[in-house]
Amino acid sequence: MTDKIEILLIGPPKPTIVNGLEPFTVHRLGETKDQNALLGTIAPKVRAIAASVTSEKIDGPLMGRLPHLEIVATFGVGYDHIDVQWAAAHGVTVTNTPQVLTEEVADTGLGLLLCAVREFPQAERYLRAGKWVERAYPLTKATLRNRTVGMVGMGAIGQAIARRLDAMRVPVVYHSRRQAAGVTYRYYPNLLDMARVKGSDQHELDERREDAAEREPEQRAQEPAPESGVDAVEDMHRRPPRPVAADGDERAVREVEDAHQPVDEREAGRDEEVHRAETEPRHGQQEEGAHSRSRRRPSWRLRSLMSSVEPTLIRAPPR
Known about the structure:
- The chain folds into three domains: about 5-95, NAD(P)-binding Rossmann-like Domain (Rossmann fold); about 105-200, NAD(P)-binding Rossmann-like Domain (Rossmann fold, 3-Layer(aba) Sandwich), CATH 3.40.50; about 245-275 and about 290-315, no CATH class.
- Helices cover about 45% and strands about 10% of the residues.
- It is built from 15 helices and eight strands.
- The chain has a five-stranded parallel sheet with strand order 2-1-3-4-5. Strands 6-7-8 form a three-stranded parallel sheet.
- Helix 5 packs across helix 7 (about 155-165).
- It is extended, with a radius of gyration of 37 Å.
């Protein structure tokens, strides 16, 4: 039977990590009173270090005490707590867990921003104190409208927060040690220059709206065909209105307008006669005036259209 690989766990024994290390023999450094004594005993056998937090420092002297160390795995995005240069020089692999909590942290960041603007924590305390019986909580004065959000850093989490602000149509600018690749947000090499942006960066907002307007036709062209009734209706509303080019179409439009006008009883009495005159062939017909059009009964094509929309529009008034 092959012996289990021995691992040194640094930091609190989180269940997620401990359960994942079941196939190995785990030595918990944090639960040992005499850490030096433990390291002296297990050092020749340890082949890996697992760090459950990024607050525990893993420096060169510590890794140097483990002659057969092969890998240091940290449970977190950051690895500033690890002496990466020492590890690289001695052939030790260092791994982290990027992108695992990116979206969750971005959600939390946006939630904190909304709490600051809308005073949700203060309003919740106001409610629990029973003050709402006396009077309503005052409207908050702060708003995200006509404001610009300045961010320090534009990594994965920063970009995730910026995408959420894009949906809220709030302009974003940022400062970082270097300009981020593949983003369109305005970059400020100097943090103080970004901090001096006053109120709404209208120029930034206009640029982003223009950019979105330029991309819209291309995005629409790439949209798949509607697959449901709801999608079909939304697609219909996105289409531009069909221009009236033929005389028959223009006539149908006029008939729709006339159908909404009240019908006089004398005109209703002529309904049958007018209908018969429409169905019979006409010779030498001249262009009709507006008055004669208003008395005409809607054609079969228009009645079909109207019946599918509002049946009451084609009911004749009682005689």
